[in-house]
Write a structure and sequence with these properties.
alpha/beta; 6-stranded mixed sheet; 14 helices; 12 strands; flat
């Protein structure tokens, strides 16, 4: 399928202990042989050889060369990896020598693209490879590694098989209606199968929300009146001076963000401007941004001043967030003698927030990945929605007792959308775009 041999640097191009230059294709071994001090042609697969890289008679580097013979490689082609010293100049020098000897510089994601085209992985697994590289929490990493192991195919294959069963039933009745052993096609028999299929896909789509939480984190807004300690709380949670803190109410005029990990889940913290009647144009803009962030928030940390009784504005914030998942925090516990019985008591200024951390851990003590497998990729979820829409149209047609061959068109479309998730019904331009988002050397 691929006639040329590609090469790229597979580690970050910066100074470090080692760097890896990867080369894949039918000429991988001869090309590396032409610059290596030892003959690799008879080396067994999955072995490492110590030696030197030469530019003609000039010594370039002392290296370890790993040989992986097709088909048991990442790309299912011959693959060679040169483990060099991690200098930027030396790494580029070795890559340049490989290109001079006949290799082509790989495009972003081309190694994984070859793995896909050679059937080693499906498209969902290929996407999971990039998601694993980009993972920024335990939950997103766990989700990605499950995807690499083929969890999406395991999730979709029962749905695909059910569709094939329905399509086969329709096809047989259209093509061979005279056969006595063919089960008679009736809508009363097709509708239960269709409803059961729709129920399965609805469950997957509901659970996909957990997958997106695992991948993207939870947007968490810190909300409250001016000067209740929202910025101090953000700094305490992040354990750094991220936000400016003063005794002047309204110091925070814009959105300040940071991230923490709780039970392996990432919280995307957003410190907002205090919500009140704005005193100037800049503060008004900040408050408008706060209200916009609140609309998108998946979790609200609602902060009150524990040294004061709740006032009308506090009660308005309680009403404003009543339909949101929220934790009510009473800050400035160092200024009060009587601790509130309800809510979570903290002192952000002194970084006494363990009660809040305990509450967050309890909130997410059931891992969002407790149910496997999950979808989190927007492309995959979008195609799943399209498949559901196809089957909803098929169901409506069944209820109207439309001709079976017309109903089959929508069912076949649902089947194709599911197969497209795995890359088994696809467009080349789409694949090129997807793989171009990968990093070089992968």
């Amino acid at each position: 399928m691929f006639s040329d041999t590609i090469a790229a640097i597979s580690t970050p191009l910066q100074e470090g202990a080692i760097s890896i230059i990867r080369i894949s294709g039918e000429d991988a071994l001869p090309i590396v042989n032409s610059i290596f001090s030892k003959d690799l042609s008879q080396k067994e697969s999955h072995t490492i050889t110590y030696g030197y890289i030469y530019d003609n008679d000039t010594l370039v580097d002392e290296v370890l060369v790993s040989v992986f013979r097709a088909p048991k490689t990442y790309t299912r082609e011959d693959v060679v990896e040169i483990n060099a010293h991690g200098g930027v100049f030396i790494t580029r020098k070795i890559l340049g020598l490989l290109l001079q000897r006949g290799a082509r510089l790989a495009r972003p994601g081309e190694f994984t693209q070859r793995a896909f085209y050679h059937g080693r992985i499906d498209l969902a697994q290929a996407e999971a490879v990039e998601e694993l590289i980009e993972a920024n929490s335990d939950a997103s990493a766990q989700l990605a590694i499950e995807g690499v192991r083929g969890s999406i195919r395991a999730l979709l294959e029962p749905l695909i098989d059910d569709l094939m069963d329905i399509i086969a039933t329709i096809e047989v009745n259209i093509d061979y209606p005279e056969y006595e052993d063919v089960e008679e096609l009736t809508f009363s028999k097709l509708l239960p199968k269709t409803n059961a299929w729709l129920e399965k896909i609805n469950q997957i789509l509901v659970r996909a929300k957990s997958g997106q939480v695992a991948k993207n984190g939870i947007d968490t807004v810190i909300l409250g009146q001016p000067n209740v300690g929202k910025s101090s709380l953000l700094n305490a949670l992040l354990d750094e001076e991220k936000a400016i803190v003063t005794d002047i109410a309204g110091t925070t005029r814009d959105i300040v963000e940071g991230q923490i990990q709780v039970k392996g889940v990432r919280l995307n913290l957003i410190d907002t401007a205090g919500i009140r009647e704005a005193k100037d144009t800049i503060e008004k803009i900040g408050i408008q941004k706060s209200e916009q962030m609140l609309e998108k928030a998946q979790l609200v940390l609602l902060v009150f001043d524990a040294s004061k009784p709740l006032d009308e504005e506090d009660r308005r914030l309680l009403s404003l967030t009543k339909d949101k998942l929220r934790l009510c925090l009473y800050n400035k516990s160092d200024l009060v003698k009587k601790i509130p019985e309800e809510g979570i008591v903290i002192c952000a200024k002194e970084k006494k927030i363990q009660s809040l951390l305990n509450a967050l851990e309890k909130l997410y003590e059931e891992n969002v990945l407790s149910e496997k497998p999950l979808l989190s990729n927007e492309r995959q979820i979008g195609l799943l929605h399209l498949a559901k829409e196809d089957m909803m149209r098929a169901k409506q047609a069944m209820e109207l007792e439309t001709e079976p061959d017309l109903i089959e068109i929508d069912i076949q479309s649902a089947h194709d959308h599911l197969k497209e998730i795995l890359g088994e019904v696809s467009r080349d331009d789409l694949l090129d775009t997807l793989f171009s988002k990968f990093c070089l050397g992968k």
